[in-house]
Amino acid sequence: MRKTLLFLLLLSAKLAFGQFRDDFTDGNFTINPVWIGQASMFTINGDRQLKSSLGTVAQAISLATSSALALNVKWEFSVQLDFDPSTTNFTRIYLVSDQADLKGKLNGYFIQIGESGSTDSYDLYKQTGNSVTKIINGLPKNRTNINFLSTKLRVTRDEFGKWEVYTSLDDGATFSLEGSVIDKTFTNTSWFGVFCKYTATRSDGFVFDDFIVEELVTDVTPPRLIGVKVVDKLTMEATFSEAVSPISALLTSNYRLRGGNETPTTISLTSQPNVVKLSFLKPFVSDIYTLIVNGISDIKGNITLEGEATTFYVEAYTPQKGDVIINEVFTDPSPSVGLPSAEFVELWNTSNKYILLKDWKYKDLTTTYTFLTDTLHPNEYVILCATADIDSYKTFGKTIGLSVWPSLNNDKDRLSLIDSENVTIDEIFYTDNWYKDGLKKQGGYSLELIDPNNKCTGIQNWQASKHINGGTPGAENTVYQIQTSTTPPRLLSASIVDETTIQINFSKSIDSVSGALISNYKLNNGIGVPLTAVPQSPDFMSVLLKFSAQITKGQEYMILVNGISDCAGNLIDPRANTAKLFISKDIGKSDILISEILVNPKSGGVDFIEIYNATNDVLDLAALKLANSDEQGNLANIKSISGSSVYIPSKTFWVLTSDFGVVMEQYEVKNPAHFTKMTLPSFTNEKGTVALLSSQGEVDRFNYHEKMHIPLLQIAKGVSLERVSFQRPSNEKNNFKSAAQASGFATPTYKNSQQENNEIQNNFWLSTKVFSPDGDGVEDVLNINYQLIDQQYVANVSIFNDKGILIKRLIKNSTIPKMGTLSWDGLNEKGTLSKIGIYSIKFEAFALNGKMKNYEQAFVLASKL
Description:
Blueprint: H1 2-18, E1 19-22, E2 35-37, E3 42-44, E4 50-52, E5 59-66, E6 73-81, E7 90-97, E8 106-113, E9 119-120, E10 122-129, E11 131-136, E12 141-142, E13 149-157, E14 162-168, E15 176-182, E16 191-198, E17 206-215, E18 225-232, E19 235-240, H2 246-249, E20 255-257, E21 266-269, E22 275-279, E23 287-293, E24 307-313, E25 324-330, E26 344-349, E27 355-356, E28 361-363, E29 368-370, E30 375-376, E31 381-386, H3 390-393, E32 399-402, E33 412-418, E34 424-431, E35 447-449, E36 462-464, E37 491-498, E38 501-506, H4 512-515, E39 521-523, E40 532-535, E41 542-546, E42 557-561, E43 578-581, E44 592-598, E45 608-613, E46 619-620, E47 625-629, E48 635-640, E49 647-648, E50 653-657, H5 660-666, E51 675-677, E52 687-694, E53 697-705, E54 721-723, E55 736-738, E56 763-766, E57 770-771, E58 782-787, E59 793-801, E60 806-816, E61 819-824, E62 837-847, E63 852-861
Parallel strand pairs: 31-32, 50-51, 57-63
Antiparallel strand pairs: 1-17, 2-5, 3-4, 4-17, 5-16, 6-13, 6-17, 7-8, 7-16, 8-10, 9-12, 10-11, 13-14, 14-15, 18-19, 19-22, 20-23, 21-22, 23-24, 25-26, 25-35, 26-31, 27-30, 28-29, 28-33, 33-34, 35-36, 37-38, 38-41, 39-42, 40-41, 42-43, 44-45, 44-54, 45-50, 46-49, 47-48, 47-52, 52-53, 54-55, ...
């Protein structure tokens, strides 16, 4: 009797799920099947079709009927609209829905008919909550009668989630494919139905008929047990290949465990139709378990024969920080010295417990991988690598392939291991300095942890592998040892974070306990000890100090550190336990001025902007921005000069450029430390704007153009424009001029060749009247000194003998600075030493305004007798 009842129940279930049809020939939609929703707004017309009723207001209405087919299914139906459909008058036929109310939030798929114009397409949409996405865009269809639409549709979806939409304009005689797509977002359904949105005048114009929902391919395959897992000490979950019949799934006699033949005491269904939960009386212990099933049927009545699945259960253990550690990282496999050419990270279970990695996370700064069902055995090493590299590393030991591999940066990266409760079990923030070996740093060697029990982290506890192959994946590290150190920590630097906070940096990891004691720090100028001291993890090489009093801008401070030790107990070096602090004043109008610009560089050169600190204070370039302007003269392309403090001393020239090495190659640079590398705004050759900005507003602006260069200059390429006066406005006429040829056409980092000096007058003099170029170190060269006023000059300087014959031309038609020195070593135009005798020097300088300066002086070239 029991078997007969079970058979009848299964048969009825099979019939219920087998197909659904409704052509409304019974004259109603309230039974066989039952449609629910706004029933009063629908009727059955004289042609035995489902039709919307006449309404008086614009609204949306729907009807839905129970449906359970979402995969391996075919839907067919007819639709007639007695009006021109539009975006305000349209219909949706919901093929899949998890809600009966089709007007609200739901998950499912629908066909929509209705858009503006005389052509219509039949489109498939996916709805997720209130979000709607078109996944098949049907072909446009022209209608001869714009106010009438009639079609028959067929939609199929196979078990792999492939959708196909067909339409027929001849009542099903032929169907045309509208489009296809693969989408398996929603694979379960509870409802099928129609949705109508209309204005009042179109309310009775929706007609539906001949609904068919049936399997695409008849299912005769019984369910298979595809997996089993232990949920807790008394509970197990069994997963089948498809939804199972609740009646057969709830029979405890259909399950048993191999070995003791134990059957579950209770069985319960889950939210997933293919998963059931089994409860046992005897608690599970760490072991392998095999579940055997028999007599389980699917919802179509297909009954499985005996099947089994195995799982490995590990008793729950809450891991502690340090139980599993990041023990080795291989960041740069090239060039290989023996290991595979692929990155890896090695984990080490330092405990004597089995540790489940399920839902643990391994990540770097940008990518996270979540472990599946992996287990670490006591004291076991495991190698993590990309899935594609498993074969390369599995010969070394247990290997887990990560389908999304957090790629390792060669220089620096933060790696974290986080358990299923979101607790960080281990974390490192490595840099390539950890190798402590310049050659191994170039690649092919791993970084190995020295001592997992040392409470310090970072560079002090890591080192390049000493193995001949470059690393030890799956084995003990070559550098493993109890760490000892005799080198005391040193205070490297201190910087101001804000007006009450400073950061101090040490040479190595410090003991975080001593680092957190506020009595170990003291700031001078009456400020004293900090309110808080917070060592910065994970390397503990810096500490943030918060003070009650504000740090005054423009005043120098000294921080004193005592009582700090490293992890080996070494106290801070008393010779390196202080550091200076400084925060500059705000930069105001004309505090920093544009001094020189090169926007048309030589071939292979780069632009540079030279600035000048016109104040008596040290200023911070990090507070300064550089900009150009657009065609309307508005400031644009504003760029910060530096992300960290760069202090420019008073009355100092400073260069901003993208590549200072190139500037040094092409020009004389007297102060190579006076530069900052940055990405400059784009400056055109012909004309443009250079602007300096601070939080106080515009500091300086210079509007340049090519015509500012000296007209006698044939080529402006590689020639800078230099500021003449810092007392006159930047854009005052003639305040920027071409750098002198004698100064190399630019003077980056030092005084401009065209800079005025109001104290000088026109002058010309020789360093001596007699010189002897004999190499004895005494007056071996003749120095010719000059100073000129107000104009930019082009000069000719030549040496003549006592007969007026040209001996040496020092300068020919060259622009010169306003003040300078020329030298003659006694060599003539042929490169040989001139004879002893009387010579004269002629100095001719002429300006663009026609002014000329001529000087001539005699001197003697002598020699030892």
